[in-house]
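Page 42, continued from yesterday. The earlier attempt failed because a stray header line got pasted into the input along with the sequence. Redoing it now with the clean sequence only.
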Amino acid sequence: MSLEPLTLPTPAPLLSRQGWVTFLLVLIAIGIAAPLLNLMVPQTSVIHMSDFAVLLIGKIMCFAICALAMDLIWGYTGILSLGHGLFFALGGYAMGMYLMRQIGLEGNYKSELPDFMVFLDWKTLPWHWTGSASFVFQMVMVVLAPGLLALVFGFFAFRSRIKGVYFSIITQALTYAAMLLFFRNETGFGGNNGFTDFKRILDIPVTTQNTRMVLFVITGAVLLSFYLFSRWLVQSKFGRVLQAIRDAETRVMFSGYNPVSYKLTIWVISAVMCGVAGALYVPQVGIINPSEMSPANSIEIAIWAAVGGRATLIGPIVGAFLVNGAKSWFTVAFPEYWLYFLGAMFIAVTLFLPQGIVGLVKKITGKNKMEGKA
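This time it went through. Structure tokens are written below.
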């Protein structure tokens, strides 16, 4: 009796043909159309892209990277983190340290030390500022700072089999403790005011229109790159194991896999993505302070993923744009009602749209296809 050879299923393409077309259109919009509309089209023109729009969309793209990172651990692995704002802030502080050193003698006190250190009567840079004048070194720290913290925290948390609401509470406590630590002047991170008044990046003025547009394009390219990377990751064997852990972790263990190593790996990857987002956020906004570590910011990241649609990758990106776009309008038109709106949106999505906006769209389009076939 001969056995038929086992044929493995054909790997799914990274993107469909329509998906690649959409991806290229977005890439052209970010890399070509936006610079032309902002730099070349006169401000009096209807199609001119204002500097405010460049700043706002650039910020939201940074937030979208965080939402995408949240989807990898929550949507695909079933780990709800309420502390990802900490990783975002650590990446921002790593970039902020370099930008503060770039100020040089142009500060208010005309000193090589950052102004807040002169004000606090510091005589030398603290040890953890060593290498902060090097762009390459600080870019490495953008990855290492959130990555190492996530590695250490995740190692002990996952080995202790902490999960569910307990894990979420611990991550929230971690980011709150870090926020209180960074508020202290003794830590050498600017205390309550943090870092601001940036002048240059790579010896190029950071506040010019051209520099802001370059940062905008880089942010968009990083977001699209992370999206492709995430698509590849969740479609790989590694991604399928993550989804199995989300659905039935005990069965995964009985199948011979070690869930701890898988959860720890995706946890670190997610943290690093948030750190990179924070590093891109700081030179565009021009400030970084401990308020970025507030638990509310971390909760917002989870809301973006939930509103857009978990386990879809594109959903959290849509959620980040939708919620932050609404926030930008509400905080100007109805500032006292913004938090009520955010809470109502989250409750409505939880009760009526458990799969988020993208899930609703897929459901509607699926029904339309079924009706067309009927």
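Notes: The longest helix spans residues 209-235.
Reminder to self: strip header lines before submitting.
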